[in-house]
Design a protein that fits this description.
single chain; 144 residues; alpha/beta; Rossmann fold; five-stranded parallel β-sheet; 5 helices; 37% helix; globular
Length: 144
Amino acid sequence: MKILIINGPNLNLLGTRQPEIYGSKTFDSYFSELQFGFQEVELAKYQSNVEGELINKLQEAQEQEYDGIILNPGAYTHTSLAIADAVSSIKTAVVEVHISNVMDREQIRHTSLISKNAVGTISGFGLNGYKLAIQSFLNTREAN
């Protein structure tokens, strides 16, 4: 199984940005833990602060035949029709992940333009949301 993790704006600052919300671990160190914990899965990661680059990566992921995409679109969750359209335009299954509980934050964060096009959304479990998303892909594969 091949899974691509795509992280959006400001997620390159994990470990230093608002650790009371996002924790103190960098995504690179967490990604190493994911690779160790899911050795049966070919994991790749990508991060960009640029909306168009995230859209390009979503489209490329389909071409590269990933079995699933874990997408944390960051603040673009609430503002980007273009990313929502990209998710709805590809056949690769997408699980939307948020580190914080977005429903416990500012009102604008309560609306996701991405969710209706994703197979599921995981929010509020910290970095463990990525593990849960990988497990959801594995469970789906086992069920089929």
